[in-house]
Every structure is written in structure tokens, then in C-alpha cells.
TrEMBL record:
Family named by the database record: Belongs to the cytidylyltransferase family.
Keyword Repeat: no
Keyword match Isomerase: no
Annotated organism of origin: Buteo japonicus
Family matches, as NCBIfam families: cyt_tran_rel (TIGR00125)
Protein name per the record: choline-phosphate cytidylyltransferase
């Protein structure tokens, strides 16, 4: 026997590109007979046109990674499988389990967009009946192996286990809907203050007038703390930059001071250039003030050492000429003396 083509192709390829369809909205009215499979047969693999139909149900409130991992396990139990997921309605859930955070429409949509889900069954029954299993041609039911006591029964999956149709999955530790709700209740004040700050009203949050004022005051205090923190961080950053600049300036000053001291010593040190230059200039000045004497062997041309010739125009200051005639006589006598020397 074969299932219809839609039952075969509706699966991995379609769920990766579009949301999973709802079971009551599909056009598939498959009338093919449903032969019972054993787990051993399913694990060996089935023909392409006969996928193993695995069913997983739950509330799936606040859909999280623990839900997704459970569905992944259900999808990969067998080499060729088709995963149907049943989601209980709000009325049924509130009756047997309690109030939910998400309504049934939100929970249905969350399941439709999980990559492992091939089909979603809305308003799923709390306890699985043979008629429901036959209607959806379910081969196996996947759920964790912890006894689920509800609706007056110690384990609502007991009859499924006895029929050999139950396949266990493993729970993901550290995450559950109850854990998430516990966190919200524990940190209620934090979330209430955050939502008030985001624009929600006290009525929408079911917060009293006094608590609203308290939360808003706390928000103002937190803002002031944040501003002070920002100022402190900016101050620390400014001080760090100043210290960094000061270190650079000190380092540069040390380098320049070493260079200055080296140049100073090179110029004014014991063997510096200034000392050499001073000695050279001192020598020149001494030579200028005390020139070397003439040699003693220079010729005197027969002159008396005690007498040095005087220029003819130098007159004797002690006896100036008394008249023009005397002056002319004196000049003539001087010219005669010069002729005699020559």
C-alpha cells in the first residue's frame, strides 16, 4: 500500500521553507490502510513512500530550547519519519494543568515554525484514544519516560506503553516552562520597573498606585547611579590619558635633558671645544700685546746707536727760529748735512 503523494513529500523539504501545515486544513484525505509497524522495523528504515508517523504532544507554553530538542529527538528516532505535533487548547490546559502565559493561538504558531515539525494538530486530546491514533495513522508516540500523572491517572501514556507504541525521549536539564515562570516571579520587581520605563501603564501590569510610584522612584535612582557611573568611567579614562601623556612628556624631557647635558659637557667640559677655543684666542691676544723682538744682528748703517735721525721737518721745540732768515739758514744747513751723509 502507499500513502498519497502529499503525505510523502510533506516533510523535511517543505518545513524548511514554509511553516508546518495544520492537520485540519490540509487537503489530504488519505484512505490508505495503516499497517502496524514494530520499533525494529521502523529502525531498519521504511520505503520512501511509507514514512514512520511519529506523534508528540504537549502544552508548549513559552516555547523554548527544551521543547525544540525533544521534537528533534522525536523527528530523528527513525531514518524515515514524519512528525505530527499535538497542542492542547486553552480550555483543556487550564482544566487539567493550569493557566498558561501564551494563549493557544500563540502556542500553535510557535510549533508551526519549528524546523522539526511536519504537521500541527490543534486542540489535541489530553489522553490519546484508539480513534485518534487511527484517524491520524500514528505509528509511535514520543515523550519523555517520566510517568505523567494527570486526569485521574498515574500515567496518561500507560496504555500507549502497553501497546508497544511508546518511544522515550530525553528531557533537557536546566530549562523548562516552570523554570522560566519561576525566574519571572522571582524578579518581578525588575521586570515591572523595566516595563513601566518602556511605556506600559500600571493597569496593564496590574501594579498598585503605591508600587507604581515606588518603581518609578527606583528607576530615577537607577538613572542617577548610571550617570554617576558614566562620569566615574569618563573621569578614570581622562586620568588615564593624562597619566599616559605625562609619562610621554617625562620620557621626552629625560631624552632632551640627556642630550642637553651631553652637548653642554662637549662644549664646556674639561676637554670641551670652548676651552680649546679660549686657549687659541688667549694665545692670539698675547701675541698681539707682546710681539717678538727684532734680531740684534740687523745693520745700523754706521749710525751712532745713541742718535737716531730725525725727519727734516721736525723742528727743535726748545729753540724755534726767530726770523724767516734764520729759518732759511737752518734749512740750508740741514740740506748740506744730508748731502754729506749721502
Amino acid at each position: 500500500f502507499t500513502l498519497c503523494e502529499l503525505c510523502v513529500l510533506r516533510g523535511d523539504q517543505k518545513t524548511l521553507t514554509a511553516p508546518a501545515p495544520f492537520a485540519d486544513e490540509t487537503s489530504c484525505q488519505c484512505q490508505a490502510p495503516h499497517e502496524k509497524l514494530t520499533i525494529a522495523q521502523a529502525r531498519l528504515g521504511t520505503p520512501v513512500d511509507r514514512p514512520v508517523r511519529v506523534y508528540a504532544d504537549g502544552i508548549f507554553d513559552l516555547f523554548h530550547s527544551g521543547h525544540a530538542r525533544a521534537l528533534m529527538q522525536a523527528k530523528t528516532l527513525f531514518p524515515n519519519s514524519y512528525l505530527l505535533v499535538g497542542v492542547c487548547s486553552d480550555d483543556l490546559t487550564h482544566k487539567f494543568k493550569g493557566f498558561t502565559v501564551m494563549n493557544e493561538t500563540e502556542r500553535y504558531e510557535a510549533l508551526r515554525h519549528c524546523r522539526y515539525v511536519d504537521e500541527v494538530i490543534r486542540d489535541a486530546p489530553w489522553t490519546l484514544t484508539p480513534e485518534f491514533l487511527e484517524k491520524h495513522k500514528i505509528d509511535f508516540v514520543a515523550h519523555d519516560d517520566i510517568p505523567y500523572s494527570s486526569a485521574g491517572s498515574d500515567d496518561v501514556y500507560k496504555h500507549i506503553k502497553e501497546a508497544g507504541m511508546f518511544v522515550p525521549t530525553q528531557r533537557t536539564e536546566g530549562i523548562s516552562t516552570s523554570d522560566i515562570i519561576t525566574r519571572i516571579v522571582r524578579d518581578y520587581d525588575v521586570y515591572a520597573r523595566r516595563n513601566l520605563q518602556r511605556g506600559y501603564t500600571a493597569k496593564e501590569l496590574n501594579v498598585s498606585f503605591i508600587n507604581e510610584k515606588k518603581y518609578r522612584f527606583q528607576n530615577q535612582v537607577d538613572k542617577m547611579k548610571e550617570k554617576v557611573k558614566n562620569v566615574e568611567e569618563k573621569s578614570k579614562e581622562f586620568v588615564y590619558k593624562v597619566e599616559e601623556k605625562s609619562h610621554d612628556l617625562i620620557q621626552k624631557w629625560e631624552e632632551k635633558s640627556r642630550e642637553f647635558i651631553g652637548n653642554f659637557l662637549e662644549l664646556f667640559g674639561p676637554d670641551g671645544a670652548w676651552k680649546q677655543m679660549f686657549q687659541e684666542r688667549s694665545g692670539r691676544m698675547l701675541q698681539a700685546f707682546s710681539p717678538r723682538q727684532s734680531p740684534n744682528s740687523s745693520p745700523t748703517r754706521g749710525r751712532s746707536p745713541s742718535r737716531s735721525p730725525s725727519p727734516p721737518w721736525v723742528f727743535n721745540k726748545a729753540s724755534p727760529p726767530s726770523s724767516p732768515k734764520a729759518a732759511s739758514a737752518s734749512l740750508s744747513s740741514m740740506s748740506e748735512g744730508d748731502e754729506d751723509e749721502k
